TrEMBL record:
This is AAA domain-containing protein. The lineage of its organism: Bacteria, Pseudomonadati, Bacteroidota, Flavobacteriia, Flavobacteriales. It comes from the Bacteria. InterPro entries: AAA+_ATPase, P-loop_NTPase. Residues 11-188 form the AAA+ ATPase domain.
Length: 301
C-alpha cells in the first residue's frame, strides 16, 4: 500500500447506447466504432443477439460478427468477449445486453424457494458479466433497449402519436458501470445522460457520427495528469480534444456556411476532412428533410 499522485492514464472507453427499438443503436454503434478504430473496421467486432441485424450495415466495412443463440446467458457473452480479445479486436460492440438481463430474469422466475434469497444465484452472474466488460482490453460499446411508450405531439394542428424510450431493460443502476451513456430518440438524435469525459455533457442533442468516435478516442489517448488538466482552461481543453477544423464543420448551420468553409481550405485539407464535410452535408440534408432519414433503425424487410 502506498500513497501516490493521481495521474490521467490512457483508457479504453466503456460506453452504452440506450434507446427504443428503431432508434438506430446498432448503426450509431458502428459509426462510433469506426471512429474509435481510426476507420479500421477489421478491428471491430459485434456480439449480435438481434437476429442478424449486424449484417444489415455491411456496406460500412468488413467488421467481424459473433452471433449468439438463445439462451443469452452472461457466460455466453463472457465467452464471446474472450474470443474478441484473443483475436486482437480494438472495439467490441455488444448488441445488446438487454437479452442477458431478460435471460437472468427468466432464470430467477423458475427457481424454487424464496424469491428474495434466490437473487444470490443471479447477482454473481450479472456481476461477472459487467466485470468482464469493464476489464476488457478493448473499447466496449453496449446497447440497451428501452421500454417503450407513446406520446401525442402536435404537428400542423393534429396530434400525432410518437414512440419514446423510457427506462433501459437492464438491471437498475447499470449505467453507473459505464464512463459514457448516450440516450437516442426515435429520430436518431443523441444526448448524454452520463458523461465522465465532459465532451458531451450539457451539450445540445446531435446525430452520432464517425467524428463522435474520433473525439472519444482522442480523449482516451490524452494520457495527461489530472494536476495538469486542472491548470488548463476549458477553451484550451476543447482545442486539445477536438481538431479545430472538425469543430468548424460541425458548427455549420447551413449548406452555404459549409460550402464557404470548404472553399477556404487548401486541396490537402479538403481531402483530409472530406468524410467530415460529407457527413455534415448529409446531416444538414437530413435535418431539413427528415422524411429522407432511412439509414438508422430497423430496415424494411
Amino acid at each position: 500500500m502506498e500513497l501516490r499522485k493521481t495521474e490521467r492514464k490512457k483508457a479504453k472507453i466503456k460506453m452504452a447506447l440506450q434507446g427504443a427499438s428503431g432508434s438506430g443503436k446498432t448503426y450509431s454503434s458502428l459509426l462510433l466504432a469506426k471512429g474509435l478504430s481510426n476507420g479500421n473496421l477489421d478491428k471491430v467486432a459485434i456480439i449480435d443477439t438481434e437476429n442478424g441485424s449486424a449484417d444489415l450495415y455491411a456496406h460500412l466495412g468488413n467488421y467481424q460478427v459473433i452471433s449468439l443463440k438463445p439462451p443469452y446467458t452472461p457466460e455466453q457473452y463472457i465467452q464471446a468477449l474472450n474470443i474478441c480479445e484473443q483475436a486482437g479486436m480494438e472495439v467490441v460492440i455488444i448488441d445488446s445486453i438487454t437479452h442477458s438481463w431478460e435471460e437472468l430474469l427468466d432464470f430467477h422466475s423458475k427457481l424454487a424457494g424464496n424469491s428474495f434469497t434466490n437473487w444470490a444465484k443471479v447477482t454473481p452472474r450479472q456481476k461477472a458479466f459487467t466485470d468482464k466488460i469493464l476489464q476488457c482490453n478493448a473499447h466496449v460499446i453496449a446497447t440497451m433497449r428501452t421500454k417503450q411508450d407513446y406520446v401525442l405531439n402536435q404537428k400542423d394542428g393534429k396530434f400525432i402519436p410518437e414512440k419514446v424510450g423510457l427506462k433501459a431493460v437492464q438491471r437498475d443502476g447499470i449505467d453507473y458501470e459505464f464512463t459514457l451513456v448516450f440516450d437516442i430518440d426515435i429520430k436518431h438524435f443523441a444526448v448524454s445522460s452520463k458523461d465522465r469525459t465532459s465532451l458531451f455533457i450539457n451539450k445540445p442533442e446531435f446525430i452520432i457520427s464517425e467524428h463522435t468516435g474520433k473525439k472519444i478516442l482522442e480523449w482516451c489517448n490524452m494520457g495527461t495528469s489530472v494536476s495538469e488538466l486542472d491548470n488548463i482552461n476549458q477553451t484550451a481543453r476543447e482545442k486539445i480534444v477536438i481538431p479545430s477544423l472538425s469543430t468548424e464543420i460541425q458548427n455549420c448551420n447551413s449548406f452555404a456556411e459549409l460550402l464557404v468553409l470548404y472553399k477556404k481550405q487548401d486541396t490537402q485539407q479538403q481531402e483530409a476532412y472530406r468524410s467530415d464535410f460529407e457527413f455534415k452535408k448529409n446531416q444538414l440534408f437530413a435535418i431539413t428533410n427528415p422524411q429522407n432519414i432511412s439509414n438508422y433503425g430497423n430496415q424494411p424487410q
